[in-house]
Amino acid sequence: MSNTLYFDYKIINGIVAVISLPQFIVSGEEAMSFTNLLNDILEHLPKAIVIDLLNVELMNSTGLGMLAGAHNNLSRKDIPFYIINSNNKMMKLFKMTHLEDVFKLNLNLDEILLIYSK
Fold this sequence. Notes:
alpha/beta; 6 strands
């Protein structure tokens, strides 16, 4: 399902929303679009949000802020936030910014779906 110019998403089994990020996350326009999409998805009351970084090649501070803001907003609503398919470059960026200690990075989509399908 596509809701915006930049992001694709799907809601699996009505419980886990997966948002696929594009190749480049570098502008405020993308961040605003992401926030709007996240708000739309939250109307479906997912049990968890998963951000798929498979296609991401470049993310700057705007993209990191976008993810950190989403994590904070979802934490206040008690909705778990996961990041999957982080490449080595992204993992280094998360480590350098200490976001590896904040984000849940070590699961894959199948493991996440198993947690929430119970």
